[in-house]
Amino acid sequence: MNVRLSACGALMWDAGKLVWDDYLGHRQFALAEGVERVLRWFTVFRELDSVREMSDDPDEAAGWHKIATVLAENDILIAEDGPRHRREQAVEQAWRPWGPLARAYHFSTRSDAGTAMRTAEQDNEELEAKVVTDPPPPAFWSLPGTTRVALPDADPGVWRHRDLIDVLHRRRTRRYFGTAALPLETVAALLKTAAGPLRRVDGPLTQEGVTLDPGGVLTDSWQRVFKTSPSGGARHPTEIYLYARNVEGLAPGAYHYAAAGHTLEFLGRRLDDERLVAAVGDQDWVGRAGALIVYTSVIARNQWKYSFPRVYRSLMMDVGHLSQTVYLLATAAGLHITFTAALRDQILEELLGCDPAVQLVLGTSVIGTPSTG
Questions:
Q1: Inter-CA distances, 24 with 21, 42, 138, 209, Å
Q2: Which stretches make up the Nitroreductase domain (predicted)?
Q3: Is the whole model's pTM more than 0.85, yes or no?
Q4: Segment 150-207, tens digit of pLDDT
Q5: pLDDT tens across 257-275, in order?
């Protein structure tokens, strides 16, 4: 039987052990010392018995053969033209443009028919106990040592189009902007409506266990917050930063939106237009925008409630929901807007002061006034 090392697994060093992760089968195996030699032997298809050639000592050769047999029984070594080989060929072909790490992430977080699911009651019971000894990370951030800019209250007059169906049909991606500055009251209304906490309790949100804090924000014992965009488990991992390039009343530069207090916190950093364009994938139209809204994800907020890695997917969904809300709000205010994920993450991380180990830059909305031409 010809066998070869599986193409849909990975070796990693974990807690002092060399581990084989079979992401198609959702299985992990701790490997004994020396097993990696067998894996190297079978980087191409070879007869299983050929592993005996690794040693002239009969006993040692028999040991290598025993190890190879166990590896083949567990699909770490796969049989040529067998079911697992054919499945891997299909996976490799479909995912080739994105490379092995992308497919490894997808299949390692894919649920199969036997995946155990928890009920909402089980989750709530566990979280009620957890919050006593392991409080969740804060639902809102405020950055100490920054200069704060109070924003005006949301003015209903900024919304030129208020009918939802009308706004949905008007929504367009527009990458051309006018030279006029963005009005601060419009920016403020957009930020508060998109990212501020809701202050009204109605319908099923009045269920037992849900309360209002003194500020009127809807919360519960593990800081569940409700906003105008949905978020998995009401964790709202997305933080919003504003890069003001041409906004009335704001010094150019990067700001953090402190949603709980409806203020902007000036980070004291700015980019010239050339560097700003470089940060957003060399798209030169960014250099004519009034402002950028940068979305980052605070992974600890979701990790506190969900320990399984599949939830990484929900971080992307969260930004998708929120950025669409921003799209519609900008349209309602008569602004031009586009969204892009073509970013040089490192430039934006340095601009915003984000540690990429704990806070991920995921995308940006680019906004400006309409062009007059």
A1: 9, 19, 36, 41
A2: 170-362
A3: yes
A4: 999 877 889 999 999 999 999 999 999 999 999 999 999 999 999 999 865 544 443 3
A5: 999 999 999 999 999 999 9
End-of-domain residue from the set 87, 108, 129: 108
Q: Kindly state whether residues 196 and 82 are assigned to the same domain.
A: no
Separation CA 358–CA 288 (nearest Å): 31
Which residue's structure tokens are 């830059």? 361
Could you give the residue ranges of the DSSP H alpha helices within the chain? Answer: 35-41, 58-73, 83-95, 99-108, 120-133, 164-170, 184-195, 273-279, 299-305, 312-332, 345-352
Please enumerate in sequence order all residues whose Cβ is within 8 A of that of 114, keeping only pairs 6 or more positions apart, or say none: none
> What tokens does 11 get?
């070796």
DSSP string, 194-212: HHSPP----GGGGSTT-EE
The answer as to whether 199 is a domain residue is: yes
Note the residue count of the chain: 373
46 with 178, same domain? no
